[in-house]
Structure formats: structure tokens, C-alpha cells
User: What shape does this take?
Amino acid sequence: MYFAYGSNMNEDELINEKVTILEGKKVLLRNYKIALARNSEKRKGGVLDIIPSEEESVEGVLYNIPDEDITKINKKEGVCVGAYEPIIINVEDCDGHTINGIISYQVCEKNDSKPASKEYKDSVLRGACEHGLSEDYRVKLKDVLEKNY
Assistant: This one.
């Protein structure tokens, strides 16, 4: 199982990488916040990260994918070049049940990034809408992507 909080919430991003999506549902990651923490040449601007924060939570998508497809996500996230690193987290489903041992990704070397490009921002927000993330969270996400916070 894989937790997406950025552009991979948009299922087209994963489908383009030939990742098989068996299921995708909205979940909550507690004690983290969303931030632009890295500039990406490929994305032509800032890209999202999850950063520990006791007072905040991150809405995202929990995907059930075949184990072998994690290597495709590792490649997309730039694990081999040190862009992101895999981490293991716990998330909550809409009924408040904790789901343990979920893979997600964090930026390896954080920096003061530029705002997100229009293409990246549109992909993230399309995924947030696609999976029914709350309106308040989508506004927050848009503000973070535009660095208006």
C-alpha cells in the first residue's frame, strides 16, 4: 500500500508510469504537514513534501498496488538519484481506523523552493478533487503550491 499526497494523487500520473492501481481511497496522515521543500528541474518549480508537525495533518490517497510496482514509483520519485526516500507511515481511513506500515516518500535534501509550476499544481489539485479531499484542505494545498501561506 502506498500513500500519495502530491501529483501522484492524480491517477494519470501513476498510469503513465504503468503502475497498476487496484484501489485508491482518501485517508489522513496525522502529525505531518504539507510543504514545498524541493525544486525540481523536471517539474520546473517546487514539489511537495511531508514534514513532521504535531499540530497538522495531510489528506491524501492510499493506493493498493502490486508489490512489484513500488519499483516504478521509486523510479518516478527519483529514489536512485536522492530526490526522495521511502518512509513507512501509518494513516487513518474515513472511519478512523489506523492502517499501519504504509510506504510514502519524503524529500531527502530540503531547500527553500520556488512556487510550483502551473502543470504540477494542476496535477496535484486534479488528484485532490478526483479523490474527494476536503474543500478546506484543497484551499490549503493551493496556497502551499503557490507559496501564499
